[in-house]
Design a protein that fits this description.
Aminopeptidase, 8 strands, alpha+beta, binds coenzyme A
């Protein structure tokens, strides 16, 4: 796999639009408390234009404020891209509020529906961990998923997630830098 985690770029405009159509068709626009649903509503009519997309890329390419009920935290975004194909994204919350500690975690991710079940999310989270651990100084990293989200649970466990507990419907895992590094070395040997 030659996909890479990169800063948002206008170079994948056409593929990004196709990916957002896939998300919409998959029902992502109606998911409650979803940042993607909010973006589909806010940016849906502006993404297709070169100017609108450039504005969006400029915004998500910087450090944004992730507004939570219990405070705002800095948030940055990387895209999982193979050539000119947009495949998914990872968001990093630089620190936790009490609600993020309980439910949201440090890292969120999504793979476009047409590219799922090909190992992208696992590779993408694996590539995201050194950014969290080394660039953002977060160790350990909290990653959570719904107890019904088998795919995401497998991704987190494959990346060295240590299960702590379940709070409401959220499974909570911690990923330590040492475990993630060991996993990456093992991956390179395969
Ligand atoms: C969850 C999600 C990120 C998985 O992405 P993906 O690229 O398909 O994941 P991978 O291909 O790396 O799959 C990892 C494992 O989960 C399994 N898997 C993936 N989707 C699955 C599903 N819907 N049901 C059961 N198993 C699934 C894969 O077979 C693979 O199994 P393995 O460990 O035996 O190899 C993707 O479905 C998605 O974007 N969903 C919507 C957003 C979301 O839920 N984000 C996570 C928030 S915590």
């Amino acid at each position: 796999m030659s996909a890479q985690l990169i800063a948002p770029t206008v170079a994948v405009h056409a593929s990004f639009l196709a990916a957002m159509d896939e998300f919409r068709a998959d029902g992502a626009g109606t998911v409650a408390h979803s940042s993607l649903a909010q973006e589909l509503r806010t940016w849906g009519t502006r993404w297709p234009t070169a100017d609108g997309f450039a504005e969006y890329v400029g915004l998500v390419g910087g450090v944004m404020d992730d507004e939570r009920v219990d405070g705002a935290v800095p948030l940055s975004t990387r895209w999982w891209v193979d050539g000119d194909a947009y495949l998914g994204r990872v968001t990093f919350r630089h620190r936790l509020t009490p609600s993020l500690l309980t439910w949201g975690g440090h890292i969120g991710y999504g793979v476009r529906p047409g590219a799922r079940r090909r190992g992208h999310a696992t590779a993408m989270l694996r590539a995201a961990l050194p950014i969290a651990h080394h660039e953002l100084g977060i160790d350990p990293v909290l990653v959570t998923c719904d107890d019904t989200n088998t795919g995401s649970r497998r991704v987190i466990e494959a990346c060295g997630g240590i299960f702590e507990d379940q709070r409401d419907d959220k499974l909570r895992y911690w990923i330590h830098e040492a475990a993630a590094t060991a996993g990456q070395q093992q991956q390179r040997r395969i």
